[in-house]
Each structure stands twice: as C-alpha cells, then as structure tokens.
Specification:
Elements (H helix, E strand, L loop, with lengths): L18 H13 L6 E4 L8 E9 L5 E9 L6 E7 L10 H5 L3 E6 L29 H17 L4 E11 L1 H12 L3 E7 L6 H7 L6 H9 L4 H9 L3 H4 L7 E6 L7 H10 L5 E6 L8 H16 L2
Helix pairs in contact: 3-4
Amino acid sequence: MPRLAADQYVSQVRMPDDIDQFWESVLAETAKIPLAPEVVHNPLRSYGEIDVYEVFFTSLDRVRIAGWYAVPKERDGLLPGLLQVPGYNMEPPVPKNWARKGYAAFSVAPRGKLRSNRQFNPGYPGLLTYGIVDRNTYSYRGFYMDACRGVEFLLGRDEVDGGRIGVTGHSQGGGLTVSTAALRPEIKAAAAGAPYLCGYMDAIALTDAYPYQEIADYLRMNPGRREQVADTLAYFDGINLAHRITCPVIVSVGLQDSTCPPETGFAMFNAIASPDKRMYAYDGHGHDANNHEHAAVVDEFLAKHLQP
C-alpha cells in the first residue's frame, strides 16, 4: 500500500450496519453486573495533600478489575473526575499528578494487566489477537468495558461531580480514550494521544512495528481467516466508533510515528462527530507525539472543560 500524506488518508475499514446495536447490547449486558467496588486506602502511596486508594470492581464476564484512585485531601466542593487509561505494555500509574491538579483521578487496569490478570491473562504479545475471529470473544470486548466501568466507578463517588468527567491516555490509552468517549456519553472532555486501535487493518500495511504486527503474524499463520479478522476488528475500530463522540476532544499524532501510523489517527479524527475537536500533528516526532510539550495542551484543555 503506498503511503499517503496523513491528512489525505482514507481508511479501508468499513462500518458494520449493526455496530451501534452491538455495543448497546454489550453495554446492557455489562450494566446487569453489579459493580461491587472495593476501595482500600493505601497509606504507603498516600502523602502530603494526596490520598491514594487501591480499587477493585467487577466488569463484563464478571472479571475483577483493579485500579488506582487518587484525590486531593483538601477540597472545596465536588471534584471533576478524570479517567486515565493505559498503554499496551505499560502498567497503569498511580495518578497522583492529576490529583495534585485538582481531579478525582482513576487509573484503571483493564483485564490482563498485572493486578487484573487472575481471570484473564492472554499475555503481551497475545492480547491483540485473543479471540479475534469472533466479535463476541475478542479480547477488546471486555477491555473496552473495563474502561467504561471506570467511568461508572467515578460516577459512584460522593466527592465527584458526575457532570464533569473526562478521559485521557496515550497510544492504547489514546484508543481507549476514543472508545470510552464513544460509549459513555457522561464523558465531557477527551484527550487522545497517538491513538492505537484505529485502522487496525490499515496499520498492518503501513507499519511493521508491534503491537500491530501481532495481527500480521496471526494472518501469516492463519491466511484463510483474514476476512473473519477484518469483520471482527471493524466493530472495535476507533474510526467506526468516532461517530458516537459528541464531547470536546483533542487528538495528537507524531507524523513520523511507526507504531501507530498517523494516517490512522487522521482517519479517526475526521470521523469524530463532535464539532468541538482539534488535531495536533507534530512533525519530527514519532510515537511520543511531542508529549513533553503537548502535555501542557492537555492540561489546559481538560481544565477548560472540567475545572470550575
């Protein structure tokens, strides 16, 4: 496939006719399962003005999911909530930095992460292709719901203003930012960095980097399943979910990103329904997407839409 300019790229992904019905069904199935949150104060990680809690809750398929919750000890009124979603290989950090900025911050560890892998552990590599020939068994069906239930956790906290909840993340976290903003209308602002999980089938033709090469490896071993794989991934592709995003959103890409090709980020951004959206494309940057400078843009954006 010839490489086009990122802002001219049109994805080959096709939207399933029943994609909205599929996700409404998954959301409804998840909603029937009690969240059953367990919140335990962690004095070793708490300090000064920040309280840190270890959290567990129940998600789709009754998988128990972990997370870190950080809040400022001193607060005047309700706090804005912020969901931080992790990259593919990273473990979710304790979100003290966001708590210092005045957020009730929840860093979720979706299934397969270290503290959420007792019931589901396909490994890394492995997660991206687990159950990939069926939309009802694909790993990200539950993974997306784990992030969505993180929003539900924040909505259930007495100290959180349910009308001021945002989501942010980079790489896989950028992709989860897209899917969570698409599937949870309670999200009021979303900041997605170098979004992964967008244009899956495009990406395996545009880059030979992992994690996307997990799919290419799978197809080399199972060449007869290409159509099934493409059909499944279409339901999870951020490009196909972006039409459900109506909140303010910013997206960043590095124009030399060989992990998450910028073409896929542009295709997803173009599909976002919200009129309040902005793309930050950084020339001379790879998968970092100029995060050392763009972080200030994210701070300003989230404060504008979530802080009083």
